[in-house]
Amino acid sequence: MSEEYERKTDRLASALGWASLGLGAAQLAAPGPITRLGGLDDSALARGMVRLVGVRELFHAAVLLGSRRPAPWVWTRVAGDAMDLTALGRAIANREGDRRRRVTAVTAAVAGLTALDLYTAMRANRRRPSIQPEGAMELHAAITVNRPRQEVYEYWHDFENLPRFMAHLASVETIGGGYSHWKAQGPTRKCIEWDAEIIDDRAGELIAWRSTEGATVRNRGAVSFTDAPGRRGTEVRVEIEYDPPGGKVGLAFARLLGEHPEQQVRDDLRRFKQVMETGEVVRSEGSPEGIRALRQAMQRPAQPVR
After folding, report:
1. Order of strands, edge to edge, in the sheet holding 234-242?
2. Which pLDDT tens digit goes with each residue over 237-253?
3. 137-296 CATH choice from 1.10.246.80, 1.10.10.10, 3.30.530.20, 3.40.630.40
4. Sign (positive or negative) of CA dihedral 30, 31, 36, 38
5. What is the CA radius of gyration of the chain?
6. Residue 50, SS3?
7. How far apart are the first and last CA of the chain?
8. Could you give phi then psi for residue 263, rounded to 5 degrees?
9. Who has greater pLDDT, 253 or 144?
10. What is the pLDDT of residues 112-139, one digit of tens each?
């Protein structure tokens, strides 16, 4: 699914989080009026149940508003809705007259919220699937580049430019028809090759790709380009999913060498910013090797040139 689709789903989930916050606060602050308004009896047991539901709603609010990706947590609200509808159904059967009408009205309102919760949760399930649930890595990074959006998009879209700022890429060869051949260097200097195809391409906005069948390193990802606030250039966001060579063992080994994938992507974006804004990767006397990540690990404080 597109990044915009996911952002809309998360915004909807956050709105449900605010709704839970309001409901939970009201149920804890005024359980008596709520039980009477809903057609329930005003007993200590009923007020206690309303307070418990309020605590649960505050829990929903905490996980939805406190999560960077709140949409999958909406399933907790769906489970709570099911319990509420069951309890309200029993209350309807035990009420008559005006109290029964009020319980029915509350049940209809909860059913409406349940439908919205279920819709949001199902949207979250339709997000882009992982390449391999067991052991797959998901990376996110972003940077602001002080260049026009179209210019930034066009430079990245020429995949043969990527090795200029991606430290572990040896080369990218454009094959044609949306396909390209990639060569990369792993932590042990082993050369890894694969083919990739573009699966979504929107001029000036988005480039999405995935590896082809049989790739040594299965991967997919997307890079999006949006105007930065205050006319500060272009915001570049990268999302990558891939199956690390050697699985978790390979990933742990890479970390020991100081080459964690998340840090690699962030470093690559910093070098991309340098290339776009200055025309080259900035080198210093203390780090003359430039983009070589292993050499950068041994960099030293710069000294005046004698």
Report:
1. 137-145, 234-242, 219-227, 206-211, 191-202, 179-185, 169-176
2. 999 887 766 555 555 54
3. 3.30.530.20
4. positive
5. 27
6. helix
7. 56
8. -70, -35
9. 144
10. 989 998 888 888 776 544 444 445 678 8
Give the start-to-end residue ranges of the domains of the chain: 3-125, 137-296
The tokens describing 45, both together, are 């047991």
Structure tokens at 180: 């390209």
Tokens 């309303």 — which residue?
50
CA-nearest of 250, 235, 257, 286 to 3 is 235
The DSSP symbol for 126 reads: T
104 token code pair: 């029915």
Q: In this predicted model, what pLDDT tens digit does every residue of 148-190 receive, in sequence order?
A: 999 999 999 999 999 999 888 889 999 888 899 998 876 556 7
- Dig out the tokens for 206 from the structure: 């988005």
∠141-147-150 over CA atoms, to 5°?
90
Give the model's pLDDT for residue 197.
94
- Which residues, 6 or more positions from 80, have their beta carbon under 8 angstroms from its beta carbon? 53, 56, 57, 60
Separation between Cα atoms, residue 226 and residue 236, nearest integer Å: 7
Task: Give yes or no for a contact between 52 and 35, defined as CB atoms under 8 angstroms apart.
Answer: no
Q: Tokens in use for 288?
A: 């003359």
pLDDT bracket for residue 258 (50, 70, 90): very low
Encoded tokens for 268: 């690559």
Q: What is the DSSP letter of 284?
A: B
Which amino acid belongs to residue 108? A
Token digits of residue 79 = 């489970």
pTM tops 0.70, yes or no: no
pLDDT of amino acid 61: 87
